Amino acid sequence: MFKNTAFTALTLALLTGCGSAASLPDVVRDTDSAAAARRIAQSSIIADTHIDVPYRLEKNPADISAATEDGDFDYPRAVTGGLNVAFMSIYTPAKLEADGGSRKVAESLIDKVDGIVEQSPDKFAIARNVADVREQFKAGLISLPLGMENGSPIEGDLRNIGHFYNRGIRYITLTHSLSNHIADSSYDDHRQWHGLSEFGFDVVREMNRLGMMIDVSHVTDAAFWQIIATSKTPVIASHSSARHFTPGFERNMNDEMIVALAKRGGVIQINFGSSFISQTTRDYSDARSVARKQYLAQNPDLREDDIYRSFAESYAEEHGPLPFATLNDVLDHFDHVVSLVGVDHVGIGSDYDGVGDSLPVGLKDVASYPNLVQGLLERGYREADIVKILGENLLRVWQAVEDHARS
Ligand SMILES: [Zn+2]
Fold first, then answer.
1. Do the strands 267-270 and 83-91 form a parallel or antiparallel pair, or are they unpaired?
2. d(CA 212, CA 168)
3. What are the DSSP calls for 269-287, one per residue?
4. CA 146, 147, 150, 155 torsion-angle sign
């Protein structure tokens, strides 16, 4: 219904000299559709709900208002890519839940984003609501709304949700890689709550009351279904892809969940990380992490963080490089969600600066959104539908959450 197969086949034939979809180049060529894609990327609001700039800067300070050598995000590349709304991830590592100090980390990361805006008020602005986003888009500013990844900084006190709301947080991903006091995590075999804790149910209701988006990325399926049954507003998955392509990977959403999310007006924001997109990449990185665990067991003095990169390098020498997903693979995820629930319930949650060097060919950084647009055009998507995918779907959910709180 959303694709014009004849157009796609013709375009492919022109592009590649044959009619086979398999031979579409990974990085699409400069054709008329490339110019159209650049125009659409510049003229419409692109909202990306998960960019890990704050934690990247915590580890490696840099001036992102100018071009940076490393990382996936900086101002010049964001301008090239047409990015307008970059949700800054206020991420706290899961182990801090037990060790203490998650709230402190969250506060300091929020300070960091405030500092970026104070330093470059001609480039960036915090966005506290959808009206801010639209005004700042007109003024040529990149909006930096805040999303909290891991509800651990709430520290068991509902009043902290109001505190973080006042500091600008507009969504909370309830867990990260470990079960916490709010919900169980898809990455954690220890399922202490069988979904949400009692406090977790209260968190969902308080977020509804305040006008914060609930993010179902990272939680278990059981927690997802409880959130869907409890929340009075549509919810988002800020950075999750379709489990259809990665069977058994609970971190991505299965078809039934995508349908339920959409039925309640929500949106799934596709994660670009290769291991979220491609089973081939997943198999490689699963085998690599088994090997890494064995190596660490044999060398108990070493810490995982310290050997992460060097281990990946020596693993690649022995087993070949990580097989990256491609732009086409990412487009398959968009197509899949659209085939299930239409164009109103899918968007972008790239995880830039959060997935290391595992980004797909053709989508390596925030300058790449036009490639995504071009890919959608070449698959026959209409401009009006692309505009929804780029940002309007997310803004619709955010507005509904705001309206609910006001009523
Ligand atoms: Zn994440």
1. unpaired
2. 10
3. EE---HHHH-HHHHHHHHH
4. positive
How far is the centre of ligand 1, averaged over its atoms, from the C-alpha of 127 (Å)?
Answer: 21
- Ligand 1 centroid from CA 283, angstroms: 19
| Beta strands, E only, 39-82 | 46-51
Residue 231 to residue 211: CA distance in whole angstroms: 11
Ligand 1 center from residue 249 Cα (angstroms): 14
Q: Which residue has the tokens 């929020």?
A: 110
pLDDT at residue 401 greater than cutoff 60: yes
**Maximum CA extent, the chain:** 62
State the Cα–Cα distance between residues 31 and 208, nearest whole angstrom: 46
Asked if 103 and 156 touch (Cβ cutoff 8 Å), the reply is no
Q: Assign 170 to helix, strand or coil.
A: strand
d(CA 145, CA 82): 16
User: What predicted TM-score, i.e. pTM, was given to this entire model?
Assistant: 0.91
**What would the two tokens of residue 47 be?**
């909202």
Q: Tokens 């409880």 map to which residue?
A: 226
Q: How far is the CA of 239 from the centre of ligand 1 (A)?
A: 7
User: CB–CB of 56/71 below 8 Å?
Assistant: yes
Q: Name all contacts of 369-372 with Cβ < 8 Å and 24+ positions apart.
A: 369/41, 369/46, 369/48, 369/81, 369/82, 369/83, 370/34, 370/37, 370/38, 370/40, 370/41, 370/81, 370/82, 371/27, 371/28, 371/37, 371/327, 372/327, 372/330, 372/331, 372/348
Q: What is the pLDDT of residues 261-314, one digit of tens each?
A: 999 999 999 999 999 999 999 999 999 999 999 999 999 999 888 898 899 999
DSSP state of 254: P
**What are the two backbone dihedrals, phi and then psi, of residue 269, each rounded to the nearest 5 degrees?**
-100, 110
Cβ neighbours for 406, distance < 8 A, ≥ 6 positions apart: 211
